[in-house]
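Exercise 7b. Backbone tokens:
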């Protein structure tokens, strides 16, 4: 912006618009949040972080009741029904449909996302990924596992069965799981 900085623009427009602040200067973060920005992205911006900011902004603007969005068809899911994760090589992202995800397992700073046909390992924490996935159907059931409630075949005590996989249920998460299963 040739005549104004982004922060000067924020001061002028007040709360009339929602803004995702993007900058290469971390010192502007605090001032940005003082202007009630939706999110703050520090350059260079990772795609998954950008996608999270977009989803955050979209959540602030629900679709009007008079114009419902068409449901995605199974053959061509919308961006809102899928997730992009960084693949093994630089600038390569893999699209995973929420409906295909069986469960996610934490591997320290990585996660393993398991679908019927593949296991995708990506550099991301389970906490960050859980913030990107819709809840429900995704639920944390253990400090190291998220599951898709839609894919649970059986729950037996402290064990969840999804396809031919067994997932432990952590004591902390047990009550929430059983409440949702009963509903």
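Sequence design result:
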């Amino acid at each position: 912006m040739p005549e104004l900085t982004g922060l000067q623009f924020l001061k002028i427009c007040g709360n009339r618009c929602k803004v995702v602040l993007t900058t290469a200067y971390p010192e502007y973060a605090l001032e940005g949040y003082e202007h009630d920005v939706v999110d703050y992205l520090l350059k260079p911006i990772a795609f998954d972080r950008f996608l999270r900011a977009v989803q955050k902004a979209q959540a602030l603007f629900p679709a009007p009741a008079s114009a419902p969005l068409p449901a995605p068809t199974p053959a061509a899911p919308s961006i809102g029904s899928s997730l992009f994760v960084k693949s093994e090589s630089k600038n390569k992202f893999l699209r995973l449909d929420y409906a295909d995800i069986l469960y996610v397992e934490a591997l320290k700073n990585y996660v393993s996302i398991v679908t019927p046909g593949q296991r995708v390992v990506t550099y991301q924490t389970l906490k960050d990924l859980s913030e990107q996935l819709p809840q429900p159907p995704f639920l944390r059931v253990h400090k190291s596992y998220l599951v898709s409630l839609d894919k649970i075949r059986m729950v037996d005590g402290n064990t969840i069965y999804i396809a031919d996989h067994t997932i432990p249920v952590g004591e902390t998460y047990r009550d929430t799981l059983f409440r949702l299963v009963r509903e």
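Instructor comment: Residues 6-59 form a domain with the Rossmann fold fold (CATH 3.40.50.2300). The mean pLDDT is 77.
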